[in-house]
Amino acid sequence: MTIDIKKGNIDYLQLLQEISIDTFNDTFKDQNSPENMKAYIEEAFNLKQLEKELFIFSSEFFFVYVNNEVAGYLKVNTDDAQSEEMGEETLEIERIYIKNNFQKLGLGKYLLNKAMDIAVERNKKKIWLGVWEKNENAIAFYKKMGFVQTGAHSFYMGDEEQTDSIMAKTLREA
User: Fold this and answer.
1) CA distance 15 to 35
2) Residue 111 within a domain
3) Which of 16, 49, 71, 156 could be disulfide-bonded to 102 (CB atoms 3.0-4.6 Å)?
């Protein structure tokens, strides 16, 4: 199995939308109403929104390929692109999305390690993310990777307020 990572740019817009919608649907459709799923997907993953995200200077996308086939992507944010005010010494993992047929190959860990490498290269002290409190598999994975819950914030799925656990990992001490 050959794994490669390519940095995303505007040329990846259609692919970004396809993976975002497919993986979000696969992961969350059974726990949410069709109306709320539709509303969220239309807002978060429309082409105009994703194009805007691709041009944010402090956000980056990295696409992971397995044997030359795209398997998913990573989105990281620094500085003012972070979804919460966490300061200049942190990096946010906003998304790790892996397509269903590529699950259980270690790609989540691979992308998480890529995010940590980026954080270290940029001299960040901490890395953090938000994960839905009901996504037990993801929470267990992040705990295994050394993350601890440090707080929570609201996440809106359509008109339903949900809670994301904020999990963080210290990369280096002050």
Assistant:
1) 24
2) yes
3) 71
Question: In this structure, is residue 165 part of a structural domain?
Answer: no
User: Which of these is catalytic: 40, 73, 142, 156?
Assistant: 142
Cα–Cα distance, 116 to 75 (Å, whole number): 12
Q: What is the pTM of this model?
A: 0.94
Residues 74, 78, 81: CA angle, nearest 5 degrees: 90
Model confidence at 172, pLDDT cuts 50, 70, 90, reads confident
Q: Within a 10 A sphere around the Cβ of 3, how many other Cβ atoms? A: 14
**Residue 162: inside a domain, yes or no?**
no
Based on the number of CB atoms within 10 Å of its own CB, is 112 exposed (0-12), middle (13-18) or buried (19 or more)?
buried
Answer whether residue 145 is part of any domain: no
Q: Provide the residue range defining the domain that includes 101.
A: 3-124
Active site includes 110? no
Quick: pLDDT tens for 40-79.
999 999 999 999 999 999 999 999 999 999 999 999 999 9
Q: 158 pLDDT band (50/70/90 cuts)? A: confident
Cβ–Cβ < 8 Å for 172, 125: yes
CB 41 within 8 A of CB 25: yes
Tell me which H or E stretch contains 51.
Answer: helix 47-54
- The CATH number given to whatever domain includes residue 102 is 3.40.630.30
